[in-house]
Amino acid sequence: MASDVLYFLGLSMSGLAVGSMYALIALGFVLIFKATKILNFAHGEVIMVAAFICFQLVTVYRVPFWIALPVTLAITGLMGVAAERLVLRPMLGEPIFSVVMVTIGLSIFLRSLAGICFGHDNHVFPSPFPVESASVGGVVLSYAHLWSMAIAVGLMIAFFVFFKFTRLGLAMRGTANDQDTVALMGVNVKRIFALTWGLAFVIAAVAGVFLANVMVLNVGLTYVAIAAFPAVVLGGMESVPGAIIGGLAIGLIENLAGGYLDQIIGGGVKDVTPFVVLFVVLMIRPYGLFGQEEIERV
Amino acid sequence: MAIRSKTFRESYYEDIKLFQTIWIKFWTVVFVIGLVLLPFFGDPYFVYLVNLSCIATVAALGLNILTGFTGQISLGHAAFLAIGAYTAANLVQRLGTPFWVNLPAAGIAAAIAGALVGIPCLRLKGLYLAMATMAFGVLVEYMVITWDGLTGGVRGMSMPAVSIVGYSLDSDEAKYFFLLSVTGLMLAAADNIMRTRIGRAFVAIRDRDVAAEAIGVNLTRYKMLSFAISSFYAGVAGALYAYTLNYIHPEHFTLLLSIQYIAMIIVGGMGSIIGTVFGGVFIVVTPEFIKMFAQALGNVVPAIAGRYDEEWNIAAFGLLIMLFLIFEPGGLYALWNRVKVGFRNWPFTYWG
Prior knowledge:
Largest sheet of chain A: 2 strands, antiparallel
Shape of chain A: globular
Largest sheet of chain B: 2 strands, antiparallel
Number of strands of chain A: 2
Number of helices of chain B: 15
Order of helices and strands of chain A: HHHHEEHHHHHHH
Radius of gyration of chain A: 19 Å
Number of helices of chain A: 11
Helix content of chain B: over 70%
Oligomer: heterodimer
Order of helices and strands of chain B: HHHHHHHEEEHHHHEHHHH
Number of strands of chain B: 4
Largest interface: A-B, 43 and 45 residues
Distance between the termini of chain B: 19 Å
Shape of chain B: globular
């Protein structure tokens, strides 16, 4: 009996650890969606590319991890600004289909480019964290997991403070709310867009580097972001707290489903569970738990 | 005699005619004769490429009906191809039915699946629809891998070639005529659907769904119909795919394939039948050029020599999607039209 409870707790804890990663990824989606009403399908590719950049810095150029991390963040931030400037800005005012497709184009372009540049081998990220696991009340968790959870929580607090108390944060919230009004108030909306993309890419990079620590590093890392879509939808596309709760919930659900249903149905349940959730949420409550319901009367 | 500066139509019938002018009819006939003669004079590799283009065109036609004409985004088109391909393969292996049963059966199986997906998706628009169809694609991919008994799982399924009255079409040339005639049929059908009531209803939904409903288009019915027709095309394309490759595997029907079809309709031209053909051919032929480009580049930059692989093509598709959306959202069809109008109105630039 006790082992059952422990099994459940273990699954839940590692589920929450993965969930905190999903939450981080979802945060990047939500940031961009809030400010620009675009769902960035290329987010997963940014995660993977960032992880590879950090990996290259650490292994090839022998940069210490804690220096390589900010360098990676800076590079990806610039990539974000560049992506906005080159690809997304020409699409301003185009129909939603075109904008979605342009980010999909960007995503497969980046993924293949990464495949060409970095190859398809699996790499083990030289983790800066101790290899042995910590035991919390009998539940075993790796240090990398604990660190990633801590970083996720820290970043979320940082973002909360940023949005609530800084001028730039206020300008971003304003842009998300109403672009015309905020432009009249003297906010440079184009600059805010570029900064939003940069910021979202930086978050993606953080998620990517820590994901690479927890999982194997290869081009397939992008699929984690696809699994984070359900988190975004569950939480509601406009809601920052929604992204966090959605992410944690998806991590928990998929781990529990994988842990209990895999024996019954056969392997791979863990990978599809998020999509089942996504489908169900879209059918019942498309705007998610905390999103804004768009009402259209015919 | 006045110079013909524009097409003046005097009746509604003229406006919806399949062949607007005698010249279009003439060039179509010339083109078809050229295609029929191709295997006798052309390079066998050419024939092979046309075969692939045919399958791509049929599948992309389905996606264009749904996305280009009805305005519903789908990221799960590959799932319907998978359903069609596995239906055909199962029919052949279990019942040994002939191709003229399998092709429609594959289409109908996919169409039923499409209509079923269409029902819950009726409430969704834009981004949400994109995600729902993507989730469906992932679910089907998972099912194909796990449902071992029906699909052979990761071992894949083999598929014999089409046989017509005891004669097996297993050479590329034989497949060529088969694929060409099926594609021609499907093209003609699509062209005809689009100029009737159904097609006009689709276009009305795409342009403004609320307005369409106000003038009496039953949204539920026509959206479902669009999903069903689109999936029918995908199912048939899936069966053709199985017949052509003689082997199907879950790896063939991934999200990447769906994105390739999206690339085809964007590059070719959304909401254009002839554009779909352009797009299908273009996306099939592009890898050949990429290969040549990579080899040429490899001669100049030795570091790249011999590094060409599948990834280059996919990167090119991504780049093509972006470039076309930014610079020519109307696709090749718009380019072609502009050239044509330019010639017709020469020397007057802004007439037409």
